[in-house]
Amino acid sequence: MPAHPSTGIGRRIAYHRSVARLTQQQLARAANIHVGTLRKIERGARGAGDGVLEAIAGALGLDPSLLLADRAQASTRLQQAIPILSAAIAAYDLPDDGPVRPFPDLRAAVEDAVTWRLAAQYVRIARELPDMLTELFRALQIAPAHERRDVAALVVSACRSADAVAYKLGAYDLSARLIELMRWASPQADDQVLNAAVAYVRTETFFAAGTHDRGLRALEAAIDAAAPPDRTGTMAARGALHMRAAVIAGRAGDAAAADTHLAEARRLGDQVPEGIYAGTAFGPSSVRIHEVSVAVSLGSDHVHRALEVAREWAPPRDLPDERRSGFYIELGRAQLWAGLPDDAFESLKVARRIAPQHTRDHRWVREDAATLRRLKRADAETLTSFAEWCNAT
Predict the structure, then answer these.
(1) Cβ atoms 106, 151 nearer than 8 A
(2) 31, 284, 345, 368: which one has the fewest Cβ atoms less than 10 Å from its Cβ?
(3) Cα dist from 274 to 197, 235, 262, 372, whole Å
């Protein structure tokens, strides 16, 4: 297990521990490490291996990348994961022999991966998913008839978590392959709600290719094929598809379609509690966030709609970190277009505090940070530091 250099890590851990109002003994107990180990790390007398770093971060409720002394380490580790993930899925239908954990253990492992995805903890996903996917492909091959549907659903969910890393890093070919694997496994799960979730994720391929019109048609076909919205799960599934359709309609420049889908998403969202349904956050707050997404997707002439939402509302803390940070990233773009650069920078900093990996690897963040840097050449050191952190040029 590699040990990260001690420079900076101990100081960061001590800072976040003080923010959390924990003693060294309390944090060590929560992280299941010896208090002497924690003391040495905090004073820089020793480094921290991946396992220790992740245990401390988990006890603090943080992503491990926040504790790394060199933030570039997180990006490097993610980039290194791309070929490993690619190799893991290459032989999905011909997995090597090996151990397979009991189904409850597999389910718990995949649930952890979903939690990491929703929290934008991509380093953890990159570390765990290659072996997990290989094991799941093996499990699907040998699953008895009564478990096959459930194992197939786990394969879909795990592929979606892996796709979060691939897509955010711009590895669109790998992302498309993972989505095709989801489409291969989903029919074996025989679950219409899961099928809708796969259609939701498939939209990434249209975003990546810039074929927004075709993406809108694909989503509208998925809405037509979705289960009737006669219970909470099916209402959420259909509502999520409408949310996604509203955004891609905005990217296609079809304001009427965007408004129609957003209105339907709002109607369905008002009928279900905010929650995670088949791996997708949906409910009134998620729809409100997508109002900002749609306004930004439609372009600078519509930014007033985004600013109106933000004036009277902010995403609640119990929403997934990835979704909350996305709200502030898109709000920042709207504020920049509206001639509010200081507000835009504040929004980007909030996004970074919520989900640093999601923010750092977001193309819009790099573009907008570069623009802010050009607009405010004499600005404080913090703007330059932020731009360098997200590799803005």
Answers:
(1) yes
(2) 284
(3) 16, 12, 16, 34
